[in-house]
Design goal:
globular, mainly alpha
């Protein structure tokens, strides 16, 4: 975590239980951690576009919730890093649990009848989410949240690997790309935490444009945002293939992947 040598800004003294390695109020007096804030755009704008496209495709509501859940994490993280207030920290961390529960439901219910609703897994995920929320509100220990979030991600990884190994092997590239990008973000998150003092010292000697590259928590946002977005595309590919739709990946501006799905042609 960051040393307590930061400037004071518009939002006052941080009340969050976490203060990351980026120096506070350096770029703007209104944004505590500027780069950690603006890097959340990748978790806000593309998922909103994905939700709109999913709605246009007429796909199940759960996948719209997946995209909007990721966008909610991005919005919460934006306000958290902008203010470093405890209330905004909860707005970041709790939606991480809720949205990942939606991801889990989508992936574990992908081989069911169209528009079916399974109440038992929904009940389990709601109980899990409520339990994590209650415990975390009482026991303000970030490691608890991180372990619970990691457990949900592990469920996604195991299910994804099972599906692309035994059911749809042709989806392995998308699965492993999503996983690899997410893990790269996790690696940079750990580097930012463990070597914060060294990173801060290096930024004092580097030109500002170069020092920005060492804001590894911002890179965590970028890579995990992209990895999570690709995971939703993977989940959509699996579901649409099972329902005998024709998924068509198109690249917005030749770069950003979006999924367009048409019903299977009948003879």
């Amino acid at each position: 975590m960051a040393p307590s040598i930061d400037r004071q800004g518009y939002w006052g003294r941080p009340t969050s239980t976490l203060d990351w390695c980026e120096e506070n109020y350096v770029v703007s007096s209104y944004i505590a951690e500027f780069w950690n804030t603006v890097s959340n755009l990748i978790m806000i704008l593309p998922p909103i576009c994905g939700a709109i496209q999913t709605y246009r495709n007429g796909l199940e509501f759960r996948y719209i919730c997946s995209f909007l859940g990721l966008a909610a994490v991005g919005v919460g993280s934006w306000f958290f890093h902008m203010t470093l207030l405890y209330e905004m920290q909860l707005l970041d961390e709790l939606p991480m649990i809720y949205s990942t529960c939606v991801f889990v439901y989508c992936l574990y219910e992908c081989f069911k009848q169209e528009n079916s609703i399974s109440l038992f897994p929904i009940a389990l995920l709601i109980i899990f989410s409520v339990s994590v929320t209650v415990v975390y509100l009482q026991w303000k220990e970030p490691v608890f949240h991180q372990v619970m979030y990691g457990a949900l991600v592990a469920c996604l990884v195991m299910r994804s690997i099972f599906i692309v190994t035994w059911v749809y092997p042709w989806l392995r590239p998308l699965c492993y790309t999503s996983l690899g990008i997410f893990l790269l973000g996790f690696l940079l998150w750990n580097i930012d935490n463990i070597f914060c003092d060294s990173l801060r010292a290096s930024r004092q000697m580097l030109p500002p444009a170069v020092g920005v590259v060492t804001q590894f928590h911002a890179w965590w946002h970028i890579f995990t945002g992209l990895g999570s977005y690709l995971h939703i595309l993977l989940s959509l590919q699996i579901r649409s293939t099972y329902l005998k739709y024709r998924p068509n990946v198109k690249f917005l501006c030749g770069v950003w992947p979006t999924l367009h799905i048409e019903p299977q042609k009948t003879s």
